[in-house]
Amino acid sequence: MTLMKKLLGAAATLAISATGALADPALVFDLGGKFDRSFNEAAFNGAERWAEETGGSYREIELQSDAQREQALRRLAEAGSNPIVMAGFAFGSTLEVVAPDYPDTTFVIIDSVVDQPNVQSIIFQEHEGSYLVGMLAGMASESGTVGFIGGMDIPLISRFACGYAQGVVAANPDATVIANMTGTTPSAWNDPVRGGELTRSQISQGADVVYAAAGGTGIGVLQTAADEGILSIGVDSNQNGMHPGQVLTSMMKRVDVAVYNSFTAADAIEPGLLVLGLAEEGVGYALDENNAELVTAEMIAAVDAARAQIIAGEIAVHNFTEDGTCPVTMQ
Amino acid sequence: MDFLGILQILDSTVRLATPLLLACLAGLYSERAGIFDIGLEGKMLAAAFFSAAIAYTTGSVWLGLLAGIAASVMLSLLHGLASITYRGNQLISGVAINFLAAGVTVVVAQTWFSIGGRTPALTGGARFYEITLPGAEALSGVPVLGPIYAELISGHSILVYVALAIVPLTWWVLFRTRFGLRLRAVGENPAAVDTAGVSVVGMRYAAVVICGVLCGLAGAYLATGLSAGFVKDMSAGRGFIALAALIFAKWRPWYALYACLLFGFLDAAGSRFQNIETSAMLVVILLGAVAAGLVWAGRKSRLDMAVMGGIAALLIGVIALVLGGVGLTGTATIPVQFMQALPYILTVVILAGFVGKAIPPRAGGEPYVKER
Fold it and tell me: Is B331 helix (H, G, I), strand (E, B) or coil?
């Protein structure tokens, strides 16, 4: 009897400690890799900040192919991770299928909307942030032609492009915006050579500021822009330091804050839609010592005024994903 | 589209075709000797990484180039060991090399530089820069010829000129030297070469090593010439396009040059023209011409006819959609996805209908067994 008690007690302790240890949060990175200097890296930084501040640990999976999405989510859910945060629009359809199977696990998806009772969807107002960097581009451009290089022709990237174009035109009504997309396969997010060629092609059409929203491909865009002596604009993370003095600014998308908040809130995450825009400091533009000389006080004043007006609702930046059209024509 | 714009597209064509050309010639040597090599992609990737990594640590792009070539040759020898010495399946060995390179480059990069499977950006002497040929400045004032010389011929990295020089060299080696004759014979009829007292194994190893050197050049050009540093998976399928170009070129050096330039041109045009708006009439005429061409090309065999007819029917469907949508006088937009898919569509069309029969070296893919 005593032996039985001891055994049961040991089993119970084990079970308790096991659940305690397994309630770690988890993070799934999208294709493009954890250190893309951009979107995924921002997510990683948020998770690292959480780990540093709380001393906790988290699980992570870096995808190698599209086929692993479902497998990764199920593995984490079955291992007891909670909440599970995934960075990337492409998880949408997979999560739609997986979430109902694990009702006790909370999922957080960034950049896509999944309508399930245990899913929180976080959407950034990229068009608002892009509008601000577009204004900076419009003011910094001397030729009156600016470029945009996206990864794939998908609604999310078109939202970046459209917000940017609106900002450019707001700062310089006569400006021309050239928009190009890198490709149609996942390698479009990891092809710096093609990014460089697209940049050269835009330069030959007169562009002197180029905004890249294309993951790892953007590294090639920023490099070529620096080589050819024109300005570039980074995306997602602060990329100003990659070529100091030659990157005009970066459109900051605070994926790190979103991941950090989700990890911190843990059980208190409210399922539903969470929209992070300028007002919530979810998007913005980067200003540091690397681009201090490029951005004048007037430019900052103009952009900050626009920022306040957007928050107050006086300027409405059109969101491409709402109706699939853009009020500004791009070439 | 003005003259300068066309020149810039051609300029971009040369840059984009160079890695394809080097990889294609690499495959040419290997496959002419009877060793199929679908590991071109992996070798390029490994070379890209090691050239960038060593160029960054030593500050010398030439040391980087050597390291890239060495890495690529190591993988080639591995392929040789598996498929020549141990007579394994050449396709499987090639696939394994692709996987190996994709994984090893990222892991080693992370261990060495800890910035997540990339190398730091290369600067100064760690990169190949565009060189200006003598007289480019002076001649640039001459109409037509001046800009062609200054923009198109001058102003490329040294590796571009090396790649172009390798084309006649390859032709000469393969078709005008004893070594070349033996190399081709080993790919066609190794038993005959063996009977003549020449080592089949030795010839085949020589071929895969040359293949490794050329892939090394291609990878180094990607990482240190076209861009400044290595990024995960940066070869982005170029090794496979080079293989398609090799078949398209029927395993011949000059045709390989033309095929690679064509693929480079389509790539460059796809980057330059996205979302073209043009009159619907032009689109209809163009698509109709292509459909007619396909049917004509497929007239000789029933199977070709089925494939070509299918594609032609698809095109006619698109014509019907355009006509129904905007009519003959409206404007139609050619979507960016179509422009980006164009190189691949043309690969299918060209391979299926226009090159005629592409016959690979007869002993290709078969390990040589001395005694039967």
Answer: strand
pLDDT at A12 over 60: no
CB pairs under 8 A between A and B: 87
Cβ–Cβ gap A33/B271 under 8 Å: no
Q: What is the pLDDT of residues B99-135, one digit of tens each?
A: 999 999 988 988 888 777 788 888 888 888 888 777 7
Tell me the backbone φ, ψ of residue B172, rounded to 5 degrees.
-65, -45
Provide the residue ranges of all domains of chain B, joining segments of one domain with +: 3-272, 276-334
pLDDT for the residue numbered A18: 44
What is the 3-state secondary structure of A207-253? CCEEEEECCCHHHHHHHHHHHHCCEEEEEECCCHHHCCCCEEEEEEE
Domains and CATH numbers, chain A: 21-125+259-264 (3.40.50.2300), 126-252+284-323 (3.40.50.2300)
pLDDT of residue B219: 94
DSSP string, B32-46: HTT-----HHHHHHH
Q: In chain B, whose CA is at the least distance from the CA of A40? A: B116
Nearest CA in chain A to B223: A193
Q: What is the mean pLDDT of residues A54-64?
A: 87
The mean per-residue pLDDT over the stretch B80-98 comes to 92
Q: So what's the pLDDT on residue A2? A: 59
CATH fold of the domain at B3-272:
ABC transporter involved in vitamin B12 uptake, BtuC (1.10.3470)
Contact B236 A194 (CB under 8 A): yes
Q: Could you tell me which residues of chain B have a Cβ less than 8 Å from any Cβ in chain A? A: 4-5, 8, 12, 15-16, 106, 110, 115-118, 121, 222, 226-229, 231-234, 236-237, 267-268, 271-272, 274, 335-337, 340-341
Instruction: Classify residue B51 as exposed, middle or buried by CB count within 10 Å of its CB (0-12, 13-18, 19+).
Output: buried
Judged by CB atoms closer than 8 Å, whether chains meet at A33 and B268 is answered as no
Distance from CA of B51 to the nearest CA of A (A): 16
3-state secondary structure at position A62: strand
Look up the pTM and report it. Answer: 0.82
pLDDT tens by residue, B164-191: 999 999 999 999 999 999 999 999 999 9
